[in-house]
Amino acid sequence: MIHITKQGETLAIIAQNYRTTVQKLIQANNISNPNIIYVGQPIVIPGLPSPDSIPYTIWVSLSKRTLILYQNYELVKVYPVAIGRMLHETPIGNFVIVNREPNPGGPFGKMWLSLSKIHYGIHGTNNPSSIGNAVSSGCIRMYNEDVLELSSIVPNGTAVFIRP
What residues form the membrane-spanning segments (predicted)? Predict the structure, then answer.
């Protein structure tokens, strides 16, 4: 997969967001000076397929509190979700699923899908009554059976578009 460097990003930040190491980024991109990267620079993220090669996309509507799964631009399913609360808003933008952890426990329910923004993910819940509300610390919270279904369908590298 290719990440396009944004204003204020460093290799360390990019590595954190994609749960890899700076050294792996340096090697994959033949970077001679890791302190010099520029806005718009393409950075290869080793080990992640290009979202363009994956038939699935996920769209999250914060206002409707829904997660919509598409396959080849055809609607597959709409899931209800909980989103970030005031002062802990869910980030708006374009992300990808970078990894997953079954049974992370506690408030994260039965599955955690990490997004390409450190500390954010799509996950289950131990509080199903929270779904439909703005209550999380910024993550997309789903019913456990829904996040298990979603995670069985979409691979790492799947594009996630979060919109207001």
Answer: none
The Cα diameter of the chain in Å comes to: 51
Task: Assess whether 119 carries a catalytic annotation.
Answer: no
Question: Do both 31 and 16 map to the same domain?
Answer: yes
pLDDT tens, position by position, for the chain (164 residues)?
A: 999 999 999 999 999 999 999 999 999 999 999 899 999 999 999 999 999 999 999 999 999 999 999 999 999 999 999 999 999 999 999 999 999 999 998 899 999 999 999 999 999 999 999 999 999 999 999 999 999 999 999 999 999 999 99
- Provide the residue range defining the domain that includes 55: 51-163
Q: Which of 3, 88, 119, 139 is catalytic?
A: 139
Q: Is 139 a catalytic residue?
A: yes
Residues 40 and 67 in one domain: no
- Judged by DSSP in three states, 145 sits in helix
Q: Which of 116, 114, 120, 118 is nearest to 151 (CA)?
A: 114
| Residue 83 φ/ψ, nearest 5 degrees | -130, 180
Task: Report the CATH number at residue 73.
Answer: 2.40.440.10
User: What is the Cα–Cα distance from 121 to 114, expressed in whole angstroms?
Assistant: 4
